[in-house]
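re: ur question from yesterday

yeah so i grabbed the chain u mentioned. its 158 aa long if i counted rite. heres the sequnce exactly as i have it in my notes:
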Amino acid sequence: MKKLFITAAIATLFSASVFADGSKKAATTVNVSTSVTTQFNANFVDAKNVTWTVDRNFQKADFIMNGVKGTAFYNLQGEFVALTENVDVTAIPAKTRQEIAEKYKGYNVNDVFVVQNNTDLNPDADETAYFVDLKNGSKEVLVKITPELHAELFKTIK
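ran it thru and got these structure tokens back, copy pasting raw so excuse formatting
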């Protein structure tokens, strides 16, 4: 259950994230623990446009590194939980993309991202999980790619 909650929370938060473009590294550290910002700066040295948010579950850094949008999640105790990164749709195997096209006719790929979980902290979590955000007019769904490379509805967003 904890695995599902953490994965669901991260996937949902990521799918709702908005990123800014630019090249200057700037971090707003209001309400972010010093240990987390120190850890982040050591692990993501080349991160640009760092924007921090804190909610009841996570301290989250949205950033761009080497041209790739990413989000690092830390729990409120300052432990690294997961990293999400935008990826190209071609990161999903062709057979799985075909399955998505058949199951979700009329939907367009809005975003594809990978979640890399800290399995030392969350041993029940998948180490790596891929998600596809699909839109069809006012409808939006989040699809998870299973370890068997099948597409399954993860969450209806709208």
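noticed a couple things. Confidence is low (pLDDT under 50) at residues 1-5, 14-29. also Residues 61 and 82 are 11 Å apart (CA to CA).
anyway ttyl
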